[in-house]
Design a protein that fits this description.
- It is a single chain.
- The chain is an all-alpha fold and about 70 residues long.
- It contains two helices and no strands.
- The protein is elongated.
- The mean pLDDT is about 95.
Length: about 70
């Protein structure tokens, strides 16, 4: 499959959206924990794993999109 400039821009957009939404989720999760919200430990662990995994995916998409844009310049 040939990656075009549109694909690169799309991947960068997905990465930016991922960083924005998961960053806000991280902030809200931290605020809930700091406020003493009573949840089982599994809740905090599962959501922390989701945050790390999705931010890592965002990093992969950003790198991939940047590579496509650099090769298409």
């Amino acid at each position: 499959m040939q990656m075009t400039r549109k694909h690169g821009v799309f991947l960068i957009g997905v990465a930016a959206w991922s960083f924005l939404t998961w960053g806000m989720f991280t902030k809200n999760l931290y605020a809930a924990h700091a406020a003493g919200e009573d949840r089982p430990a599994g809740y905090w662990i599962a959501h922390s794993v989701l945050i790390v995994a999705n931010l890592a995916l965002g990093g992969v998409f950003a790198a991939w999109g940047a590579k496509v844009l650099r090769s298409r310049s």
